[in-house]
Write the structure tokens for this entry.
Amino acid sequence: MRTQVAIIGGGPAGLLLSQLLHLKGIDNVVLEKHTQEHVLGRIRAGVLEQVCVDLLDDAGVGQRMHAEGLVHEGFDIAFDGRLERVDLRRLTGGDAVMVYGQTELTKDLMDVLAAADKNPVYEAEDVCPHDFDTDHPRVTYRKDGREIEVQCDFIAGCDGYHGISRASAPKNVLREFERVYPFGWLGVLSNTRPVSDELIYVNSERGFALCSMRSHEISRCYVQVSLDDTLEAWPDERFWDELKSRLPEAVADTLVTGPSIEKSIAPLRSFIAEPMRFGRMFLAGDAAHIVPPTGAKGLNLAASDVRILSQALIEYYEEKDAGLLDRYSDLALNRVWKSERFSWYMTNLLHKFTADPFDYKMQLSELDYLFKSEHAASALAENYVGLPIEGL
Ligand code: APR
Ligand code: PHB
């Protein structure tokens, strides 16, 4: 079998790249290890930057997002008995974010690909990239017991943090940077009305909390937990009690609780792999970098990688110009590091790292400064709505 671009991984990065290339007549195939149901079963963040919204529109999958997604012009931070609003629209001169679940966005991409008869290959076993240091890269995999080889011009490694693409990169070229945080997030999805119209990020003496949502009827809330915590130790009642204890009293009093429909614990990590290109293999999304979820940047970074990579491949095929492909790694990493910095900053600002009161006082001082200084608040806001992609 032959294609132009072999895409490993059918998460949001791989599906979005596939659709953008199909729209330009560039032949490609997505090889996904799991079933479609498994991919759709993963509950992840749901705050989209304008860069991501625009890209979904370009991909022709923005319709349901615009109809059902919620435009958020600000969010709250609760700390030290205060509840302060970050007015994104005012502080950025007009920008906002879109609240629309990653699961929904993934489903929209699957539907549009299926309608065009461009379905990914699901349950592709032992996917493996080869010869990407030559002009004739290949990807092999097994499906229903048959060995299949895909010859291609390029390989896109969109297979997430645990994927095979980065693991296949030459060890003497690959550099990895990492910070593992000493806590995790316990997340609960519930069919309950969100406690507020906007997100509330909470710095409390008991640890971080977040009240987010998927719609006007579905809440997604989190509390910081220790790394050795288990789901068994957190029945719904304990979760809601803990969340209430971290919220300002007036907010806690109006919190509607209900049975969880999904509950999970995720560790927090910052991770960056450099470079993002190895010959004819390009990494995009979680395959190349992980952010702690505090800045809501994971999906958005995957989208900005795909924005650059899709344009680079389109210029290669339409204009015979490999210039942008050559710059892909540098351009993508420039934005990756800025989002990594912001996610790390938000994580440091809002979580309880130690029992040392000095650390807590430092956080409170920084938070107070944020709401006294327009400059500081603007810096936070412009990062939250998403920085521009430089050099495109
Ligand atoms: N072969 C084929 N597919 C693989 C392999 C493999 N060896 N390893 C992993 N995959 C698949 C996974 O099953 C998954 O569906 O690659 C896909 C990667 O998807 P994601 O992990 O969702 O990563 P990405 O598409 O980059 O999306 C980034 O996801 O984790 C969140 O916060 C992150 O929201 C961000 C988004
Ligand atoms: C979510 O809704 O799951 C969410 C929102 C904002 C974040 C992280 C997660 O920063």
Summary: Residues 314 and 320 are 9 Å apart (CA to CA).
